[in-house]
Design a protein that fits this description.
The chain is α/β, with parallel strands linked by helices. 34% of the residues lie in helices and 25% in strands. The two termini are 29 Å apart. It binds cytidine-5'-triphosphate and ligand LQXTBERG. The site of the ligand C[C@](O)(CO)[C@H](O)COP(=O)(O)O has 8 residues, from loops. This is 2-C-methyl-D-erythritol 4-phosphate cytidylyltransferase.
Length: 228
């Protein structure tokens, strides 16, 4: 079954401290957002992409789509104040495929096979997200003193794309909007309305480029890909 993708690129990249939206930073000669979009653009199961951007940057994104021959971006949607608002606006621009994958533009290393696993799991379970087991010990901290060590055996670090049956994610976003609830990922909105979310084992290399040192990790991942 095909899916539609919402790719989020409307943030400011504040933590990257690059003085610009990190989506335009180059990785191995290509802008971050182009690398991310290419994965979906080349996937035959991706029917179309909605790209969520800051309206003030739309023409810059349009030039990149043309320069790098990205064909499947069928619509733009306006970014919002928070990531959740951007997703909500992206949902309104979908054409109605049964499955939608919602992805951070800042995650360029997602693999096509994971897109397919997530889409298939969303058909079966309604919601499916990629995650990797936490490798560090995680502690709850108050005032820079340890309050509690969390049992690591049940902790997973969650990534994107997050895959959903369209009707479910629309219901979850509307419910969150009505309640004034703000979550840091889309799955949390589904959880709060009591629906199951399936974990699909992800890839540690599917990093979200957030802070400057992530660029170093990204260059290493790129180099390892070239060596593959
Ligand atoms: N209002 C927002 C906030 C974030 N994003 C997107 O959501 C993804 C994950 O967000 P994050 O990594 O936090 O990106 P930024 O918000 O740009 O980073 P920062 O918080 O450091 O400003 C990014 O691709 C970002 O462009 C978005 O579309 N709209
Ligand atoms: C959605 C996400 O990438 C899952 O880990 C993460 O919650 C995004 O957080 P951000 O602060 O909006 O980058």
């Amino acid at each position: 079954m095909n899916y539609e993708a919402i790719v989020l690129a409307a943030g400011q990249g504040k933590r990257m401290n690059a003085g610009m939206n990190k989506q335009f930073l180059e990785l191995g000669g290509e802008p971050l957002i182009v690398r991310t979009l290419k994965v979906f653009d080349r996937d035959e199961r991706c029917a179309r992409i909605v790209l969520v951007v800051n309206p003030a940057e739309r023409s810059r994104f349009e030039l990149l789509l043309d320069r790098f021959h990205i064909r499947k971006v069928a619509a733009f949607a306006d970014g919002g104040e928070e990531r959740q608002h951007s997703v909500y606006n992206g949902l309104q621009a979908l054409e109605g495929e049964e499955i939608v994958l919602i992805h951070d533009g800042a995650r360029p290393f997602v693999r096509v096979r994971h897109l397919h696993e997530l889409a298939d799991a969303a058909i079966q379970y309604g919601a499916a997200i990629p995650a990797v087991r936490v490798k560090d010990t995680i502690k709850k901290v108050d005032g820079l003193f340890v309050e509690q060590t969390i049992d690591r055996s049940s902790l997973w670090a969650v990534q994107t794309p997050q895959a959903f049956r369209l009707s479910l994610i629309m219901e979850a976003h509307e419910a969150a909007k009505q309640a004034g609830y703000l979550g840091t990922d889309d799955a949390s909105l589904v959880e709060r309305i009591g629906k199951p979310v399936k974990i699909i084992e992800g890839d540690y290399r599917n990093i979200k480029l957030t802070t400057p040192e992530d660029l170093l990790f990204a260059e290493a991942i790129l180099a390892s890909r070239i060596a593959e």
